[in-house]
């Protein structure tokens, strides 16, 4: 009973904060989460949607239309033809160009087998899942960082469309929420080893954790490496799945287009293949070799051409995005310069004391994770909101008792 009363008292102690941070839950789910940047959403959202659309297209053709049709002997009845089509679909056909002779031995035919077309929907779904896994990891690990990034960014972005008084109230609640999180994540222990770890975490991120102010940022950078490695690795996965040199497929397509070659038949996705099967009648076994057409490969060829270029596009942008975040966040001077820009805009960077406290504001108060959250707001909203948040956090920081006691400020500067 006491515990329930304490929970109720805590909820009523700050009704504004709870209402602002809690009322957007349903709306945020409907329009998606904004705890990452658009390159991450290019990976886990748009790419996943593309692969699911391709899966539906291929599955519809396979399970509703006729994915294979074989040219059977004249004595075959309709039942025999259906049987031949089904056998050749579930077993691997093999491709032999018309200018080459059909191999006589089984080993020669196995080297030319095509065994991927039955599994194209499964591999496309598997690729979609691989693009979603880093996002799931980020949501799980990010939730343990002690702050709800999605709510902060969503609330900040939504202040663009509300009345001025509601906008100011919401920003103040976001600042209070961030201040509580930053204070709770602070290291209150002391000692030589603790100070050394704090220094290492500040300059080179060798030491990381919630108490060192770089937990969210390090996790986010690791997830970006996963995104980048996933996009590149899927080229090699498809290379093994298709059984061809898929890594160079896009360059071959560009070469054919540049030379104006007539590319009506692709050896990777042949439309006419051969199929061997046996029919047992009493004690006799009849062997047949039939020629089959694979209409599904018309779709597979175009789909995997697009996938090659899309994977190269996504991996390139993911690598560039990782380098941008690394450059902006790892180096201490860039983090401080980012905050100084907004402090100058708000005319809070005038005196020598302001300049000294701006460094402490970045290193000791916000640290990596605080600046990371501000950059995330800027990526999903705009710099105007970041400027207002920085101003409110700066005023909040200057009004802290420890700051005012250690750094007496004149009345003119206290209300900046």
Strand order of the largest sheet: 1-5-4
**What structural class results from the helix and strand content?**
mainly alpha
Low-pLDDT parts are 1-31, 404-416
Q: Per CATH, what is the topology of the domain at 30-148 and 205-327?
A: de novo design (two linked rop proteins)
CATH architecture descriptor text of the domain at 30-148 and 205-327: Up-down Bundle
Query: Could you name the CATH class of the domain at 30-148 and 205-327?
Result: Mainly Alpha
Report Rg: 31 Å
Query: Into which percentage range does the β-strand content fall?
Result: 5-15%
Distance between the termini: 46 Å
Provide the helix percentage.
55-70%
What global shape is seen?
Answer: elongated
Would you mind describing this structure in some detail?
This is Innexin. Keywords: Cell membrane, Ion channel, Ion transport, Membrane, Transmembrane, Transmembrane helix, Transport. The chain crosses the membrane at residues 42-59, 215-237, 303-331. It comes from Octopus sinensis. With 416 residues, the chain is mainly alpha-helical. It has a domain at 30-148 and 205-327: de novo design (two linked rop proteins) (Up-down Bundle), CATH 1.20.1440. 67% of the residues lie in helices and 6% in strands. It has 18 helices and five strands. The chain has helices spanning 2-13, 15-22, 25-31, 38-63, 78-90, 106-110, 120-143, 149-158, 164-184, 192-203, 215-242, 249-259, 296-329, 332-345, 352-380, 383-398, 401-406, 411-414, and strands spanning 69-71, 93-94, 113-114, 272-281, 284-293. The strands form two sheets. It has a three-stranded antiparallel beta sheet. A two-stranded antiparallel ribbon has the order 2-3. The longest helix has 34 residues, at 296-329. It is elongated, with a radius of gyration of 31 Å. The two termini are 46 Å apart.
């Amino acid at each position: 009973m006491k515990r329930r009363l304490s929970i109720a008292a805590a909820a009523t102690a700050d009704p504004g904060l709870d209402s602002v941070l809690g009322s957007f839950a349903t709306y945020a789910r409907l329009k998606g989460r904004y705890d990452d940047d658009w390159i991450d959403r290019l990976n886990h959202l748009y790419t996943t949607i593309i692969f699911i659309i391709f899966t539906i297209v291929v599955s519809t053709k396979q399970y509703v239309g006729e994915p294979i049709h074989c040219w059977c002997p004249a004595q075959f009845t309709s039942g025999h033809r259906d049987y031949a089509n089904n056998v050749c679909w579930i077993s691997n056909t093999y491709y032999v160009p018309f200018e080459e002779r059909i191999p006589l031995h089984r080993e020669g035919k196995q080297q030319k087998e095509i065994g991927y077309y039955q599994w194209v929907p499964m591999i496309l779904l598997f690729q979609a899942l691989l693009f979603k896994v880093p996002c799931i990891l980020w949501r799980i690990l990010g939730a343990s960082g002690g702050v709800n990034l999605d709510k902060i960014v969503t609330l900040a972005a939504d202040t663009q469309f509300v009345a001025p008084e509601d906008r100011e109230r919401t920003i103040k609640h976001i600042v209070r929420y961030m201040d509580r999180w930053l204070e709770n994540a602070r290291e209150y222990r002391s000692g030589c080893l603790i100070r050394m770890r704090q220094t290492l975490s500040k300059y080179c991120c060798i030491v990381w954790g919630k108490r060192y102010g770089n937990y969210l940022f390090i996790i986010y950078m690791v997830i970006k490496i996963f995104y980048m490695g996933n996009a590149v690795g899927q080229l090699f996965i498809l290379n093994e799945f298709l059984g061809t040199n898929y890594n160079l497929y896009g360059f071959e397509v560009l070469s054919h287009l540049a030379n104006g070659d007539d590319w009506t038949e692709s050896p990777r996705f042949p439309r006419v293949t051969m199929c061997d099967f046996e029919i047992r009648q009493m004690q006799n076994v009849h062997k047949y070799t039939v020629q089959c057409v694979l209409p599904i490969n018309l779709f597979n060829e175009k789909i995997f051409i697009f996938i090659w270029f899309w994977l190269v596009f996504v991996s390139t942008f993911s690598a560039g995005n990782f380098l941008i975040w690394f450059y902006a966040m790892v180096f201490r001077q860039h983090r401080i310069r980012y905050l100084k820009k907004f402090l100058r805009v708000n005319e809070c960077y005038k005196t020598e004391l302001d300049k000294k406290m701006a460094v402490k504001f970045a290193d000791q108060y916000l640290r990596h994770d605080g600046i990371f959250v501000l950059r995330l707001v800027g990526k999903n909203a705009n710099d105007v909101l970041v400027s207002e948040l920085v101003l409110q956090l700066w005023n909040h920081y200057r009004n802290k008792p420890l700051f005012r006691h250690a750094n007496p400020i004149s009345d003119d500067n206290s209300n900046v």
